[in-house]
Every structure is written in structure tokens, then in C-alpha cells.
Design brief:
Layout (H helix, E strand, L loop, with lengths): L1 H8 L7 H8 L3 H13 L3 E7 L2 E6 L4 H8 L3 H14 L1
Antiparallel strand pairs: 1-2
Helix pairs in contact: 1-2, 2-3
Length: 88
């Protein structure tokens, strides 16, 4: 969830894995562990490579991306709060 929220917060901007990890407050390995699945689901798209770094952004044009964007408000905030409580 934190990765999705981070990408939603930067919608329209492509980010590398380090940027996503920093914004989401997670390890780079966590982003690497989820990025392919998020791409397969249509939530994230690979936009380009900068040197050896792949760049990604939230895919607001996919069906799943549109649905996720609609949930961005209260629902994602509540899920993120619950996720933080579970981690504590």
C-alpha cells in the first residue's frame, strides 16, 4: 500500500526505485519485490530507463489504475493507518 500511495502522490512523474522507496518509507528491496506484480496488475508502468535505472509511474490510464485512483481518498488513508498499526 505504501508504494501505491507514494506513486499516487507523485502521479504523472516517473520515479526510480530509490525515489519510490524513499517516498514510501520502505527499503528498496521491498519496492523491487513488488514492482513487477504492480506492473502486471496495471497499477504501475515502466516509462523509460535513465542509465541503468528503470523509471516507473502510477498508471492512471489503466482500468485498475483508474479504480485505484478513485480509492485514493479516505479508503487508502484508512488502509495505510491500519497497515501501520499492524506493523507496530
Amino acid at each position: 500500500m505504501k508504494i501505491i500511495v507514494a506513486l499516487l502522490g507523485e502521479e504523472g512523474t516517473d520515479l526510480n526505485v530509490s525515489d519510490i522507496a524513499r517516498l514510501a518509507g520502505v527499503a528498496r528491496s521491498t519496492v523491487y519485490g513488488h514492482i513487477d506484480e504492480l506492473r502486471e496488475l496495471g497499477i504501475v508502468e515502466h516509462t523509460r530507463n535513465v542509465g541503468d535505472s528503470p523509471m516507473y509511474r502510477f498508471d492512471a490510464e489503466s482500468n485498475v489504475g483508474e479504480y485505484v485512483a478513485r480509492l485514493e481518498g479516505v479508503t487508502l488513508s484508512r488502509l495505510l493507518e491500519r497497515d501501520d498499526q499492524i506493523e507496530e
